Amino acid sequence: MSRSSRRHTAPSPFARFFALVVLASAPLGSSASLFRRAVPVPGVLAAGDFLCKAEGLCLPCPAEEMHTPVCKMYGNRRPLSCIPRRNAQPVSNSFVPSKPASPADSRPEPAKNAKVDAEAKDANGFDESGRLGDAVKGAAAQRPPVIGGEKLSPAQQELKEALENDRRRRRSASEKRADERELEQLSRRQSGVQLNVVAWEACPKVLASEYHDYFEFILCNAAFAALAGIVLVFRQRALALRQFGRLAARIMQTQVS
Question: Which residue stretches does the UniProt record annotate as biased composition, category Basic and acidic residues (predicted)?
């Protein structure tokens, strides 16, 4: 009786298989999740000590850049935006330029303001507002306004000064924007904000040229197929006419004989 009861209580192969399926489909515990590989963030690649993200499409390299190591591989390159990997911020926020914590942090120092104002003035003595310095005003008043050996009228002189002031104002505004960008980058670097490093990556295929080549291949095959169909139709017609002529000649010979 004991042997028969043991035989009946042993699990069948189907029950074993069902138990294995249930165990395999069960969620992993906390101990197993510690050893699970982290899921990579889509669009972010690990390149040595940097985390890089593609910032554009794959494009052909310029002729003057073909000697570089990136362009020697495939002749194509793709722009990347990289950040250091050692003290990297979360990937979702690392590629977004962060703003300063307070307006006081973004405000440059007085010494820097004086330096920027001094650099904004050009060699002719024009400042940011386009007004002439005192020394240049005196020199301009003593110098006779002449264009091509002829003196300018007061209206022409006023128009000339307005154009020059506008030109100097635009130039000083562009220089001021460049200085502000440099100061912003310097303040970010001093406050510990990570700056993106622009790099290039070798890529095998340019999508635009690949699409162009593919459609060109399809059009060429369609043209060859159409040409072959036209030749086949004319050949069949020529053979039919030749056979009809032979048949007519035989009929005429039989009637004559």
Answer: 106-131, 158-186
Domain limit, last residue, from 149, 171, 192: 192
Q: Examine the domain organization and report whether 178 and 206 are in the same domain.
A: no
Q: Supply the DSSP string of 24-42, one letter for each residue.
A: HHSPP-HHHHTTSPPPPPT
pLDDT tens, per residue, the chain with 257 residues: 445 444 555 567 767 767 766 666 655 544 444 444 444 555 676 767 778 888 888 989 998 988 998 898 889 998 888 887 765 554 444 444 444 444 444 454 545 555 545 554 444 444 444 444 454 445 444 554 554 556 777 777 888 888 888 888 888 777 878 777 776 766 666 555 556 778 888 898 888 888 999 999 999 999 999 999 999 999 999 999 999 998 988 888 887 76
Q: Is residue 244 part of a domain?
A: no
Q: Tell me how far apart the alpha carbons of residues 202 and 54 are, in angstroms, rounded to a whole number.
A: 11
C-alpha atoms less than 13 angstroms from C-alpha of 188 in its C-beta half-sphere: 14
200 and 90 both lie in a single domain: yes
Give the residue numbers spanning the domain of 186.
123-192
In the chain, how many domains are there? 2
